[in-house]
Amino acid sequence: MAEDPHFATRIARARECQQEREMDHCIELADSATPENYNVKKLQIWARQWRASKLAPKRYGDKLDMTTRAETPQVTREDMIEMMRKSPSYLAQIEEMIADAKKPVAQQDTKSQET
Is the pTM of this model over 0.70? Predict the structure, then answer.
């Protein structure tokens, strides 16, 4: 890599893609969590986040450089609400999760046993 800048650039890009895939996998892990295995999923997600923060610190590290993100538009609360209104199924999922979270633990356990 030290002798071939083109190769070094390709390696760096491959590593970036690898970390992006790992972060996508975190979402898959979170989506597959159940009341029985959520601690295992949380640990798996944490391990991937930690690894990404070490291999791609500029993007996934604890200290993000917000000055390099000038191209990212600001999203307001109203923008988020409008996006959710355009996706009724997503909004319904969020409302169901909120309702489940507000239920006492005993009711949540019986619901997970039924499915």
Answer: no
